[in-house]
Amino acid sequence: MRRLTLPALAVLAVALPFALSAAQLTTATFVVIAAIGATGLNVLTGFAGQISLGHAAFLGVGAYTGAVLGADHGVDALLWIPAAGVAAGLLGALLGPIALRLRGLYLAIVTLGLVFIAQHVFFNATGLTGGPQGRAFPAVQFGSFDFSPGKVLRLGAATIDSSGLYYFLALILLAAATAFTWNLRRSRSGRAMVALRERETAAAVMGVDVGRLKVTAFVVSSFLAGISGALYGSYLSFAQPGQWSLLMSIQFIAAIIVGGLGTTAGPLLGCAVVFALPSLLKELPFLPEAGSGGLSASDLTSISYGVLIVAFLTLQPRGIVGIADRLHRSGGNDDHAKTQKVTVTTPKEAHS
Amino acid sequence: MTEFLQLLFQGVSLGATYALVALGFVVIFRSSGVINFAQGAMLLAGAYTISWLATDVGVPFLPAVLMAVALLALAGAAFQHSVLRRVSGEPTFVLVMITIGAGIAVTALIEALFGADQRLLGDPWGSSSFGVGDVTINWVKLWGIGVTVAALAAYFAFDKYSRWGLAMQATAEDEEATLSLGVPVSRVHLVTWALAGALAVLGGLFLAGFPNSPQPTLGDAALRAFPAIVLGGLRSPTGAVVGGLVIGETEVMTSGYAPAALGDNFYAVAPYIAMILILLVRPYGLFGRAPAERL
Amino acid sequence: MLEVRDLTLRFGAITAFEDVSFEVAEGELLAVIGPNGAGKSSLFNVLSRVYQPQSGSVLLAGKDLLARRPRDLAACGVARSFQNLGLVAELTCLDNVLIGRDHLMRCGALRCGLGLARGEEREHREAALRALATVGARDLAERVVGTLPYGDRKRVELARCVAMEPKLMLLDEPVAGMASEERSAMTDLVRRLNRDEGLTILLVEHDMGMVMRVAERVLVLDFGRPIATGTPAEVQGDERVIRAYLGEELAVGA
């Protein structure tokens, strides 16, 4: 049954833009773009077990790299998209010496510091980021073809607008990222990361180069975050430094937890919940207009993130994938679920 | 020179507040191994509760503080009982994320209930001050230092001489063994969180004092206590105090002396930079030790 | 192969062990025994470089082992089994054994992620399966460790050590917690690894029966101090050893 879901999902993903309204497509595009970044964080936190509150910083670095290269220097997107990843990845590598020596909470708080330091730099590097006023981000441009609003692509009977173009580009990159991390998980690196997560000291004694592995996990995670950030900025077309905040980092953490830590489908599923939530909540009838006092949509969103994180970790640490698994299994073999002493992990046999 | 002394005093005052926050954190960590990222949110809740009781409900200040302490102690204990107890065996990561999640929810709830504007704290000191030479000593800051010292002394005495202190340490070491000795472990946890709640109220009170006021951005300020916690080494009450003072002074001194080239509001990130630099040399903070591993 | 001289470890005021000296020749199996709290696990933790001793020296094949960090052990040819089992419950037995092969693998994350490391992966899978076969657990390869009983897990742990292709194996209480049939099987296995495969083994154990059957020499620790060394038979009859294990009164009759 698992083998059927992947092609089915692929078909669904490709057909989706044609079934959604413009506003819904916008949300879906944001979700897919975010999922690229979440896939990276899933490697760092889901596979390797390193807590990072700094993800937003890497997204920001990627975004501004893309902006500076793409808009200020007229570089083609074919270059600035990967460059954004590389720039963010380099920052992740710089974190290396620090990550090497620190464990758990100490590392988490350093990454917390990273978010604030990065934001501080973004707010002050006015030439690159536009300072507190923000700056414009370039539309994706491949040669003479660009994704700016108003542009359409006709493929046979189908018409794809600017949003759709971003959607498909992000989808392709997400698929590539997912394939990469899927391979990673089933390879030497993936096993070593799980050993690092579960038994760090024992893993070192067993011969796993724990230090290098941590750096690797940070680099993979930040590379993907950089690409995600660059696409995000480009799609938004305008952003200011306040957006690359602790809240954004937490959104990504919430996404991978809700989706299912360490799972393959988790990042996308989690992002669907977390990043679609604000739009969904805005639709709720009983909420007052923003700014009129009382419970606003943004407050409710934040509260929901918090509650979601707590609820999932307390009740279903394997996230949505875990819930799906349970439903799938509730007709059949329950012994397996009982004897597994695992908590926030992925079962070997789930090809999800 | 005057400016230096002024800043020095303010640094001690801020440091004392951070020390209170850090201590609340250490209390929980020492007795249950839980890393409470919600400490900042608890601080915020403490400040707002006092503000609400004192200004909206009209309760006199001291009773308001006491009531806030009681309420927050209750909230902390309730959180421990309903959520944390269920997940006590999970890896560190899970516990950290749960407290992060709770922290976000609480912060947002406060903003939802009270709005984003500044409020009056309702404290009796306001901006009143006296002069020592050219240095202005604000009463609220002085009281902050005093209360911190008293709270610390009380905690040290409690930890060292009371049965509860011993029980808390034993629970942290080995909960099962402690339980088997007949120690009411669940009660120990409740006391721990109640204590942390009380410390959060006190910390919030002074953090929200002049020239600040209760407002949602206080949460970010409270987060700066984390470098203090890390510097102190997570388990050491003394470390919490030293860490708090170091970070408080760093923040205040940089706000006064940082060159413009480092950007506006550099003082907000200075604590984190200081922390990272120190951690590079001492990976477990100034007072921490590498945890004993059981292979 | 392994030369330990005057090794002392203290934790503050408590001495874990003091002035421990012994040698393990190549291909030999030396067992370290002693009552609980005698310092045996701490000794292993020093040899695993997790603890730093206060004084003494450890030479592995003539080179200073104390200068090494835990992550260098595998490259030095040392494989250690863990009392708490170094296994990851959510992974299969094969994956766990493959973690032991990690230090022999070359592919970096980039090649792994791009799927370019299949050849190397296959080669190491074969080796891991061979290691599992050596301990008689070949058929457990695809089973998730978390679903297995304790005895099987210990065998997989041993397979992981074997897969590391070590020169020296440190076995930390390999039969602890096992039922008697499993104990026999494990004892035979350890014996085979030493006698037939020629592996040098340093063993810490409580079970005297097991020790008698596999060890060529035995070192007895009590309260952190070495009290006797010799062949199993010599040590079994040694008055000091009996006193340490059973107390004063019973020693009188020996």
Structure commentary:
The complex is a heterotrimer of chains A (352), B (295) and C (254). With 352 residues, chain A is mainly alpha-helical. In chain A, strands 1-6 form a two-stranded antiparallel sheet. Chain A has a two-stranded antiparallel ribbon with strand order 2-3. A two-stranded antiparallel sheet of chain A has the order 4-5. Chain A has helices at residues 2-19, 22-47, 55-72, 77-94, 96-101, 104-124, 126-129, 162-185, 188-198, 200-205, 210-236, 246-259, 266-283, 297-315, 319-329, 334-339, and strands at 135-136, 141-142, 145-146, 152-155, 158-161, 238-239. Chain A contains 16 helices and six strands. The model of chain A is unreliable at 331-352 (pLDDT under 50). In chain A, helix 2 (22-47) packs across helix 12 (246-259) and helix 3 (55-72) crosses helix 11 (210-236). Helix content of chain A is 70%, strand content 5%. Chain B has a two-stranded antiparallel ribbon with strand order 1-2. Chain B is globular. Chain B has 295 residues and is mainly alpha-helical. Chain B has helices spanning 2-32, 39-57, 61-82, 92-114, 139-161, 163-173, 175-180, 185-207, 218-223, 225-232, 237-257, 270-281, and strands at residues 129-132, 135-138. With 254 residues, chain C is α/β, with parallel strands linked by helices. Chain C is built from eleven helices and ten strands. The relative contact order of chain C is 0.18. Mean pLDDT of chain C is 86; it is low at 249-254. Chains in contact: A-B, A-C, B-C. Chain A binds chain C through residues 180-181, 183-184, 187-192, 194-195, 198-199, 201-211, 216, 219-220, 336, 339-342, 345-348, and chain C through 48-50, 69-71, 73-75, 79-80, 82, 84, 86, 88-92, 95, 98-100, 102-103, 105, 107-109, 112-115, 117, 120-121, 124, 144, 146-147, 160, 164.
